[in-house]
Amino acid sequence: MEGLKLSEAELMVYIHPSKSRNVFQAICRELSSLLFQYNESFDGVLLAYDASVKSKQAKILSGLHPYFGVRVNTRLLLFDPKPNSLVEGEIVKISAESIHVIVLGFSAAVVTDVDIREEFKYRVRDGEGSFVSRSHKRHVLKLGTMLRLQVQSFDEEVMHIAGSLIPENTGCVKWLEKHSEEALHTDRDHKRRKLA
């Protein structure tokens, strides 16, 4: 999935003197407060981190409460979907007008009917709606399906993705992977016959 990146950073974490007994726990608390929020400094949403204290020395800041700064080496897993990148998520709601998806368990995505390619037709069977491909009957989008969609925009404030199913490389992840494997095997067989 695109939009995920691993980054290494050297950070200065400021800690209240009352937390000086267990500095590493205080650092983890500070970094944990940044999880699942868009951060402009990181240019993405922090999903996970691995921190190690660089040195035992700290810089004391003057003021009413003299915080001290500790240098920390971190490895950060960030999520920042750019326009035209591909992301995957689970379909949680489907109607004739839209498909609602949860990406990575925390970010909502929606694909409106104008962004669903003409190949898909909305059907209701046994009270449940689904989009079925007209050209490939086994390519079905229904509740619980893992969906690959193209990002049109990402609202950092509310973690909302506007998506599209217009490109051919979007749709049900399982079907897309199976279909690409079949195409790969067909190409191999075709090349073997040419060589023989």
UniProtKB/TrEMBL annotation:
<dbReference type="InterPro" id="IPR045113">
    <property type="entry name" value="Rpb7-like"/>
</dbReference>
<keyword id="KW-0804">Transcription</keyword>
<keyword id="KW-0240">DNA-directed RNA polymerase</keyword>
<protein>
    <recommendedName>
        <fullName>DNA-directed RNA polymerase subunit</fullName>
    </recommendedName>
</protein>
<keyword id="KW-0539">Nucleus</keyword>
<dbReference type="InterPro" id="IPR036898">
    <property type="entry name" value="RNA_pol_Rpb7-like_N_sf"/>
</dbReference>
<comment type="function">
    <text>DNA-dependent RNA polymerase which catalyzes the transcription of DNA into RNA using the four ribonucleoside triphosphates as substrates.</text>
</comment>
